[in-house]
Amino acid sequence: MSYRECIAKGVPEGQTKSSYLLNFTGCKMFSVPQSSKSEFLDKARQAREERKGYKEKEKAATQIQALVRKFLCRCRLQKQIRKEVDDYFQASEAGTTKRNALSLFRTARKLLFIYCLEDKIRFEKLCRTILASMEVENEPKVWYVSLALSKDLTIPWLKQIKDVLWICCQLLKNLKPDILQDSKLVTLYLTMLVTFTDTSTWRIVRGKGEALRPALTRICENIMGHLNQKGFYSILQILLTNGLARSKPSLSKGTLTAVFSLSLRPVIAAHFSDNLLRSFLLHIMSVPGIVSHFTVLTPECMTLIQTHDLLRKFILFLSREEQCLDICVCLEGSHTLCLLGNLIHLGFLKEKVLEEEANHFVKDLTDMLSYCQRYVSQKKSNLTHWHPVLGWFSQTVDYGLNESMPLVTKQLQHLWGVSVIRTLFSDVLSKKLESQESTPPPPQPSTSQNNLPVKNLFKRAFQKSASVRNILKPVGGKRVDSAEVQKVCSICVLYQTALSTLTQIRLQILTGLTHLDDLLPKLWAFICELGPQGGLKLFMECLNNDTEESKQLLAMLMLFCDCSRHLITILDDIEVYEEQTSFKIEELITISSFLNTFVFKMIWDGILENAKGEKLELFHSVHGWLMVLYERDCRRRFTPDDHWLRKDLKPSLLFQELEKGKKRAQLLLQYIPHVIPHKNRVLLFRNIVTKEKESLGLVETSSASPHVTHITIRRSRMLEDGYDQLRRLPVNSIKGVIRVKFVNDLGVDEAGIDQDGVFKEFLEEIIKKVFNPALNLFKTTSGNERLYPSPTSYIHENHLQLFEFVGKMLGKAVYEGIVVDVPFASFFLSQVLGHHHSTFYSSIDELPSLDSEFYKNLTSIKRYDGDVGDLGLTLSYDEDVMGQLVCHELIPGGKTMPVTNENKISYIHLMAHFRMHTQIKEQTAAFIRGFRSIINPEWLHMFSTPEVQRLISGDNAEIDLDDLKKHTVYYGGFHSSHRVIIWLWDILSSDFNAEERAMFLKFVTSCSRPPLLGFAYLKPPFSIRCVEVSDDQSPS
């Protein structure tokens, strides 16, 4: 009782308090400890949880028992049903029971109720039984399809057949047509699908049942709609890919026909709706090479495609940009390429449709290629995958398609085949290049002996070409916004997109586009007619505009340049200069002038500095075509004098801008140095060398003198002493001042002071010795006797060190401006300059500079009309090496590989490459290593191969005595009017012939050729000193 309660009941207050306190105290005194209480509570909680656990276990046990009983019951039921189904099939096969569509329906319902993977054989029997029922004659009650007409069973039957057909589809997905047993099942399940998606084979609609056809057709359409919703087209795609995406197809003619019929039925039923056309394109037309397989295996399918005008429907469907993009996004790169190949193949086969729908067809292909192009990468990365046609590709690549890529590539090749090109470029190819009467060629102003071959070439070329057609020059007059121009531009954009997307077959595309001899000349004629004035002005305006029209015009120019460059690269000199394949010489002159100006304007007007993307690609394309023409002209002239120079470019202005570091001047020197006169480039080269000398402290100044290296040379062992003393010198010492002291065989010094003259003599003599073919470091070419490394130089123990030393000595001569009479073979100089690494380089073009007779023999193989195999050649080269026949394989195993009509072009290039590169690879590398240690290779980029030869050997021209007089220095009382000096010049000009004057020059300067820039650049200058001698002394 609480204290308050006691008060309320009238208990005395004192007693109440004491009782309360006593009770409270007693409670505290006799209570249970706190830990015991916690234990008690824990035990109570555990007891509750145990009771709860027991109840849950009991409940779970009950559920498990129920599930087990349910499972066992289901197993018994399934076993019973399977037995009933088996009994039905057994009785049906034995013929002991009367066949009946209703009993078949009930059996099918039982099997579908319990169906799982272990029932595949029973399902197979069901399908066979259903198909057998459809073949019975004149027994409607047996026909399985007759249940569709039963009022009570129509809906159940429809559901059942949908289920059956979908199981057929699922089974098809996992079958491999190349396995015989699977192939039989493929045929079975496809027959089921073919039978119940079209009424044409149903006996029930024959005769009086024809009135039922519309209703039954709607049932078939309902079935097809159900299958489509479930993924019918995906199943067909998997089946087709498994059977066709391989080097040898494993689908039979009947199977392929059935699949195509099944895929086309929903499209026809839906009256070619966009939705069904989309599914057909995504899943059927994207199967690799399917049109090729139709053409070979099932011509009936091609007939269906033509009957329903499918190509036109595909083209028009894809012509809507959003639908084309949707298809590409769904397919991704590899399958988009397969679809592209099939469409191109259809276009090739259906030329009339292609001609009528050319604009849409071109747009579709361009859009699809452009989509793929987004993911084409120039190099390998963590995000890219290798694709055999696209190269490095940043989308996922389906490697399962790799086996079928050769077939897809073959389909794509139709795009640049003659038939499709003629159809697409019909507007260009229909242009007639009008003929004109031959007129005398314009006179050539040059009378130099060296220019006579060029003059004769012009004459022959003009006589041949002028009688055939007008020379194509820019004339203008065609509106760029006309339908004709827009069509041609869009076609050029298509092929340009193909070139930049299909990176691994780029050369195939270019070769295909250049196959027709008249395409490129007529495309150039078309370009010449564009705009008010034609030619350059229009395209320069396009560079400054960012409109779609301008981009298309520039794409046309880019395609023309890429194709023309490829053509000229693969044509040999006979085809270019004598046969004049595709282009006439005069047209090449006009084109090169156009290209030269275009590139110059792009650089000088500052367009290139900020160019990127398409404009930068355009520049490289135009520049590439230009440089191919320029290099061929350097090798064999076809242009008039000063053709490549820009008269509006002042060299002084260019040099000023170079000094200031102006970007456009640097780019000009990098890309088209040939627009600057040769003399000015040599001056620039000498200035560059002088600046380097100053930076290295190799020039005499008021405050310091350069370090001088002294060497002593025995005349009888000039090469050995020079090699021993100079080869270990640091590069900067070789670049510096070297003083030579000659001693005779007795060790006595020769008289004379070396003020560079003695060193020049040493350098010229040592170079003369090492380049002597008798030493076998270098050989001479047949005919013009030009030098190149000897393939058998290895007879010298240290031949590679010698080549490096020779390279340094020649580099020293060029560095000092000392001309030496060393005529190199142009193919070897091209390697020294690094031209052989260029994408435009062709070994076969350089071969005449090695062996013109060998070149003629090789090119005769190219022109051989018969079977090259009859010549008994192999991909190898037999060489007589010091009396022993050695066989060199051009490729591994080449001596067992015959040369055929298919590989003869490869053989020619391999042979040329072997003779000019492989045989002398080590010697050339050592020589280049030595030469480039003295001469920076970038300094020589401004010179062509013949110009570098002039830099080395000087001009092969007579000595200009007036120039020598003008720059002669006199000492000791002599002057230009002194009678002795007058006698000297009179004797040199009147009594000496050219050879004697060269000998005089060698005597006084140690060089038989004048300096390239004239005697003003002779160092030290030519000087004549008056020396008094006594009567008993003879002057020296």
TrEMBL record:
Annotated CDD domains: HECTc (cd00078)
Coiled coil region boundaries: none
EC number of this enzyme: 2.3.2.26
Entry-linked InterPro entries: E3A/B/C-like, HECT_dom, Hect_E3_ubiquitin_ligase
Superkingdom, taxonomy of origin: Eukaryota
Keywords, in A-Z order: Ligase, Transferase, Ubl conjugation pathway
Domain HECT span(s) in chain numbering: 734-1036
Reaction equations catalysed: S-ubiquitinyl-[E2 ubiquitin-conjugating enzyme]-L-cysteine + [acceptor protein]-L-lysine = [E2 ubiquitin-conjugating enzyme]-L-cysteine + N(6)-ubiquitinyl-[acceptor protein]-L-lysine
Protein name as annotated: HECT-type E3 ubiquitin transferase
Organism: Ameca splendens
